[in-house]
């Protein structure tokens, strides 16, 4: 019997492999979603470093958010990440949703990043 965690890892691996086949030199916007918060970072896989990051526990957002586990928080994190990525000189990324469906908080984060000027 396959455990849910194993299915998640399989989905995440499949998603990341598909992204690596078609990233064409772009950096990766990676999302992690927990039950209470959401985290995102822009990663340059070739250099092996994180260029920008944001989360719902970030001091800039912490006071403004009611909770870190809703769509409003995810959109705010996406906007903050987009601003930080633009400041780091990044405009084009590939969106790595991990093993999560492109729905709800993950989609809200992507929409916030697009609103801040990231292209994907």
Topology:
Layout lengths: L3 H18 L5 E7 L4 E7 L4 E7 L3 H4 L8 H17 L5 E4 L8 H11 L5
Parallel strand pairs: 1-4
Antiparallel strand pairs: 1-2, 2-3
Helix pairs in contact: 3-4
Please tell me about this protein's structure:
With 120 residues, the protein is of the alpha+beta class. The chain has one domain (4-115): Nucleotidyltransferase, domain 5 (2-Layer Sandwich). The protein has 4 helices and 4 strands, in the order αβββααβα. The chain has a 4-stranded mixed β-sheet with strand order 3-2-1-4. The longest helix has 18 residues, at 4-21. It is globular.
In short:
By secondary structure, the protein is an alpha+beta fold. It is built from four helices and four strands, in the order αβββααβα.
């Amino acid at each position: 019997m396959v455990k849910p965690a194993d299915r998640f890892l399989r989905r995440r691996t499949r998603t990341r492999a598909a992204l690596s086949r078609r990233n064409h030199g772009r950096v990766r916007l990676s999302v992690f979603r927990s039950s209470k918060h959401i985290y995102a970072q822009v990663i340059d896989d070739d250099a092996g470093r994180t260029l920008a990051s944001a989360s719902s526990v970030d001091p800039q957002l912490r006071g403004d958010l009611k909770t870190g586990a809703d769509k409003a928080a995810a959109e705010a994190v996406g906007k903050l990440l987009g601003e930080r990525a633009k400041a780091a000189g990044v405009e084009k990324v590939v969106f790595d949703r991990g093993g999560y469906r492109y729905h709800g908080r993950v989609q809200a984060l992507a929409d916030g990043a697009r609103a801040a000027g990231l292209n994907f």
